Amino acid sequence: MPGLDLAGDWVTRAASVAVLTGAGISAESGVPTFRGPSGLWRRFRPEDLATPEAFARDPRLVWEWYNWLRQRMAAARPNAAHFALVKLEARIARFTLITQNIDGLHERAGSAKILKLHGDIWRLRCMSCGADWPDRRATLPKLPPHCSCGGLARPDIVWFGEPLPVGVLRAAERAVTNAELLLVIGTAAQVYPAAGLIPLGKASGAKVVEINTEDTPFSGIADFALRGKAGELLPQLVERASR
Ligand code: BV8
Ligand code: ZN
Questions:
Q1: Residue 194, exposed/middle/buried by CB under 10 A (0-12, 13-18, 19+)?
Q2: What is the pLDDT of residues 142-175, one digit of tens each?
Q3: CATH classification of 33-75+122-157 is 3.30.1600.10, yes or no?
Q4: CA-nearest residue, atom 19 of ligand 1
Q5: SS3 of 192, please?
Q6: CATH classification code of 1-31+78-118+164-243
């Protein structure tokens, strides 16, 4: 693929690289994407479940969905795309991985510096005292779970209508603003403010390489829009860069 060689050169020469990943990078690990043909939201509407209103209305229903999601994510394994990013992180001093994913697969692959824009399904947060803690059990035995203070616990993730963690978003904006190269992998680029990082990086002078099986609203501003699976293209890109 023509773009792959040139994009590989850019990765080799870039002094700073930012990467934005979405659900598509975990698709080959068996984690269903949000909008794909077998998309999660085909069965459930996000408005019904991934919102604070839905949780206030029926915490048990929302937790049943997240228990199902936890089981799917616990059974998933990082794929070649996740591991390729670990190799890239080891080679490039100024490297920032920004993810919209809550599945924890980047961590399990060995990525260290991760900016999690939408939180982490393996953490819970108390609605009363605000405490948050890790819980990596595939499913939670008692729904909805409660905090030791007796308060109701929620997944420590960002729902629609909720602000992203400010520090994380600022750090992501800084990373794409200072990046010479921005890799955009497996995201439909439709959820904001995450998607806004792409034009921000471009406007700040970064070269943009998109890896996706389909077109997105920002394919047009990418210097290379590589069409294909992340699990296949990303390892090839990193392999070319390590020559
Ligand atoms: C906020 C956690 C304000 C929950 C998620 C109109 C215009 C602009 C914005 C809005 C608007 N109306 C509403 C908004 C705001 C809203 C928004 O952007 N809505 C969208 C739908 C229009 N945003 C928000 O509400 C955000 N908060 O704005 O707050 C505010 C500010 C201050 C004070 C108060 C309030 C919060 C957004 C976060 C929502 N939470 N996740 C959960 O996961 O359950 S978002 C959810 O979607 C996931 O995190 C997911 O990652 C994310 C984005 O989806 P993608 O990652 O792109 O995945 P998707 O399935 O869509 O696409 C997969 C892609 O991969 C596809 O392109 C496919 O082609 C590709 N692919 C598939 N297989 C492969 C592949 N590519 C490569 N290889 C493969 N094998
Ligand atoms: Zn509590």
A1: buried
A2: 999 999 999 999 999 999 999 999 999 999 999 9
A3: yes
A4: 191
A5: coil
A6: 3.40.50.1220
